[in-house]
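Quick start: what a row looks like.
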Amino acid sequence: GVSIFSSSKMVRLSCALVSLLVAGSASAFAPSSFSIPRHVASSSALQMEQDSGAKDPVRVGVIGCGRIGIVHLGAINKAPGVSCVVVSNPTVSKAEDAAKTFGVPRFTSDAMDVITDPEVDAVWICSPSQFHADQIKACAANGKHVFCEKPIATDLAETVEAINACNEAGVKLMIGLQRRFDPNFLRVKQAVEQKEVGEPIIIKLCSRDPSPPPREYVKGGGGIFNDMAVHDLDMTRFLAGEDPIEILAVGSCHIDKSIEDLPGSEAFDTASCIVRYPGGVNAMVDVCRQSSYGYDQRAEVLGTQGMIATDNVYPNTAKIYKNDFTGNADMPFDFFLSRYFEAYVTESEAFCKSLVEDSPVPCTGIDGLIALVMSLAADKSAAENRWVKFSEIIESVYCSSPTECSLLVDSDVFPEGFKPTKSIKDLDNIVVPDVDAQKEGEASPSLKKRIFG
């Protein structure tokens, strides 16, 4: 059941994270020391003006009170026009601690208590990945808008079903691809859009973690393209401003030999990809589960008139000058929450803004779907040692109805009336337009009949 606080006090996000985030060994999964950037704790990257009218706040619930859930809770508390009324976590003590810290009146151990709460307008899903799709569908069935950390699902058919469940129910769905909200990558995106470096020629992304995750994390995680490179693959699309055509990927194991016996790309701790985009633009991605010099996350775009590139993010700007060394006094941030803290806050505030203003979400279910398609294509390319067109992945999905989809893998027998989707641009063959597209009149009354017969 749901527990209720008679009264509670809101505290600053910085206090919440200090008390609820646990430090551990230095890696991308457990910080050696985690501190909140001062400028983020005091003011957010996204400033929203509060409506001066007496408008009722949008009431939200949060599923999952782990590290990511806590960051999003803090962002929700800072956003005008939004109020968190209930939180859940299987370990109910974590939900209780979060509720006390952020002044949330109710807490529970059951996610369905949040989803079915009549007072809740929108739900943040910050639970483990394997629960995302079912929880998204449940939210849609209960008329709740959804923010969900990526992935929607690791299965392509289930991803389409979850997106369609929200679109049919007329609720918003935003996917948490947080790097799109990082100020460094946003500046590169701005340069591309404003032609500051001319027309793009080559896009480069690298992601290298401070140290490899435990074998237990890698096992069953879907492989390096799904659990790591997917962020970089999505960023190539974000920066290119186009849908990709095909991909070539390779992988190897150099660092953690304990994973070599795992299946497919789970056995890789290092991988590289080349993605082809329209107009001859190529994007190159390299990822590695270990970097001896800290969390290495950079982007570069070479254009016809120049180049723009990002550096890593450091705890401070201090530099040391000596006869045997010149450079930053400290290593880059060695933990993903330190590196992308501001991005996580900003994406959550962006969804709050969308809810309050009833405006389109900045990162849609389709964005999450295409990111998954890209990672699955990379996996297939590495396994088969060849270029893979993204259409090969998409055309394997068959939907007999918007929320009844399946994968046609290695089958020569197709259902009657099946017409494979050949291009990312033709995803409306299997995906119902979202609520914002419907409001803009992009969905004709006969659309569903045209798609599903």
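That is the whole record. The radius of gyration is 22 Å. The longest helix spans residues 365-384.
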